[in-house]
Amino acid sequence: MFTEQNYRRWLRLSILVIYLIIIAGAVVRMTGSGMGCPDWPKCFGYWIPPTEEAELEFSPNTSYKEGMVIIVDQELRVAKESFFSTTSYSESDWKPYTKHDYAVFNKFHTWTEYINRLIGALGGLVVLVAAFLSLQFIKTRPKLTVLTIAALLAMLIQAVIGKIVVDTLLSPVLITIHMIVALLIVGLLIYLLYEVLPPDSSYKNQGRLPKFALLVILLTLAQVALGTQVRQFIDHQVDLFGYPLSSEWLENGPALFFIHRSFSILLVLIHGWFFYEAIFKWNHPIRSYYTLGVLIIGTIISGILMNYADFPFGSQAVHLVLASLILGLQFYIWMRLRSARIDP
After folding, report:
1. Topology (CATH) of 202-344
2. DSSP label at 199?
3. Tens of pLDDT along 307-338?
């Protein structure tokens, strides 16, 4: 079990699951299911959430456990302690839920958010196994062990941020932080995977390619940061106009939106030069660059759809997921270039 090959397998699996978490989070946002479970870590006070609203109504002659939730007069009520109900509702048995005042049950939203949480828990377990396997390097390559444990701790921090996001009724700023932490975890896991991969002699450079690849990453991060600001503006517009009036969301949009849109042209040109240098001049393996190019085209198409087709369903989620994949692949290529042989 304690082999470098197994460690690599679990790192790959960890990266895959983290991206599944990002996709699940995007689906939650796309469907408006963020408050499908208004409490954390349970969902309406259950480890397995209800499937019908009737399960959240007061029921006479029923055994309630401490922390279980019901909805009374469109407000959440939490059982103060375990008890067996009488024939009528008694206020003394319950206390109000004080984190927020959201008390809506929607079966689809609840189970969408619940599945998102299950995938998050799976991610924590997978990274935990990777951290356990990293103990084999504690004497020979302690950096691997320390950084893998750091990734596990970051997953725990993600869980705490997820709780705060729910408690604050989906604060846009905290949602952005949640996304950034996920990207940092992906980057850390990709770095660890690179450290235990065998050398690849097919990558070579003239000395400037790694620096240029790093510049591409930094510019993409700047573009993502601009995009998060635009998304926060759109969240505010949704609160004002609602989903049926999506055509109004970018009316009189902020200057950041136009900068974000124009900056994408610069990024395409820079990537084009980067691809030319890497593929045609230095004969690098084409698959990574081809995949990166396809992802960039996908983000452009999804951005155009959002801007000119009034945010068709799923376009925001696709845009976000593709951007996260681009950053991960850029980072992997950069790591490869850093260790590539330098040809005259």
Report:
1. Four Helix Bundle (Hemerythrin (Met), subunit A) (1.20.120)
2. P
3. 777 777 778 889 989 999 999 999 999 988 88
